[in-house]
Amino acid sequence: MKNKIILLFICLFLLCGCNNYRELNDLAIITGIAIDKADNGYEMSFLIANSPKAQTSSKEGEAKTTVYSGTGQSLTEAAKAIATESPKQLYFGHVNVVVISEDIAKDGFFKVADWLIRNTEMRKQFYLMQAKDEKAGNILKIVSPLESFPSQSIATLIKSNRDTQSLSIDTNYTTFVSRALETGYDPVLPSISIEGKVKKGSSEKNLETTEPETYLKLSDIALFQKDKFVGYIDERGGQAINIFNNEVNELRFDFEYNDNLMGFSSANMKTKMNIKDINTIELKVSGSGHILEVDGEIDLTNTKIVKEIENALETHMKKQLNQTIEKLQNKFKSDVLGIGRQMFIKYPNKWEKIKDEWNNKYFPKLDITIQTDLTIDGSGSLNNSIEEVQS
Question: How far is residue 148's CA from residue 63's CA, in Å, rounded to a whole number?
């Protein structure tokens, strides 16, 4: 009897299978999505990884990706139009980049977010980006010599920039939507542009030169009020936003000391926000780092000179941070620092009265002061400049 039961279990195991199983060669694997406005509604573009063709080998120079586009009054209709053109079944499980156009962002991201979140195959950790001065669909067409797929090139571009300079913003779908829905917090997006001609950049010939004629480039930071795009701030502003939000991995920038240009790097910048009252905010920025470059004769073994350099460093940093705050408050009225969130936590009753006018009336009038405490704890492998060593 015992042997019969064991045999029954073995048979059940061999007979069962996945009811949603699909052959890999039957799928059109989508790695990137672009969403643009169209006359009749929306235009969607899918970046599809080309799989080897049955009973054939890949030809030399054959493109590794294909971009399909379709239009419709809704995203569902646009996606359906693409599905009728694709010889294989569309599969969204490997999407890692979604690019939206400026028109989509101005109209409000939530109008297109519903389709993205309801797609059960799609993981919600993909990078979200905004195309600057270009159709979002064209971004997916530009091939890179360093990555197999344009979507990988975009993801690598964001990650490397975030890890080494903190000039860009690392935002995925979940983070953006959470910020946009959170009380007293406005989200941001990295933007991406095309340097060169789209036609040349979408050709495999773009990879056959040591200096590609067309390439993708991270551009300014897109600022939002809730889910609506309000304007761009430059990379230095993006760097400042990362400092304020404690999202710095490594920070590098130049500053001047006694008419000498110096390079500085830090990996431990920290910002503390102090809500003094409903009208007064204090931001304390601290950190340490080392000198990357010295342009001139400067004795870095002299503690007095090092202190002067630290003061120059703090002055430079404070100026950059204040410029960013001024733009956020007066030009864009975008609370990407989440000050409103802290107001809600500390003064919930007062917040209920001012929340509807926070961005346009109260946030611009805040008295925000910035304190900096930066120290130099290293000067690289040389204490003095090359000029001093050789003299």
Answer: 10
- Cα distances from 141 to residues 206, 254, 353, 361, in angstroms, run 11, 35, 48, 42
Residues shown for the chain: 391
State the Cα–Cα distance between residues 351 and 230, nearest whole angstrom: 23
Q: What is the pLDDT along the chain (391 residues), one digit of tens a residue?
A: 555 555 444 444 444 545 454 555 778 899 999 999 999 899 999 999 865 444 344 444 445 678 999 999 999 999 999 999 888 899 999 999 999 999 999 999 999 999 998 988 988 889 999 999 999 999 998 876 656 566 777 777 777 777 776 767 888 999 999 999 999 999 999 999 998 887 766 656 555 555 677 888 888 999 999 999 999 999 899 999 999 999 988 888 899 999 999 999 998 899 999 999 999 999 999 999 999 988 888 888 899 999 999 999 999 999 999 999 999 999 999 999 999 999 999 999 999 999 999 999 999 999 999 999 999 986 654 455 445 444 4
Virtual CA dihedral for 131, 134, 138, 142, nearest 10 degrees?
A: -80
Domains of the chain in sequence order: 25-233 (no CATH), 235-391 (3.30.300.210)
Give the span between the Cα atoms of 11 and 18, in whole angstroms: 16
Pull the structure tokens for residue 378. Answer: 């290293």
pTM for the complete prediction? 0.85
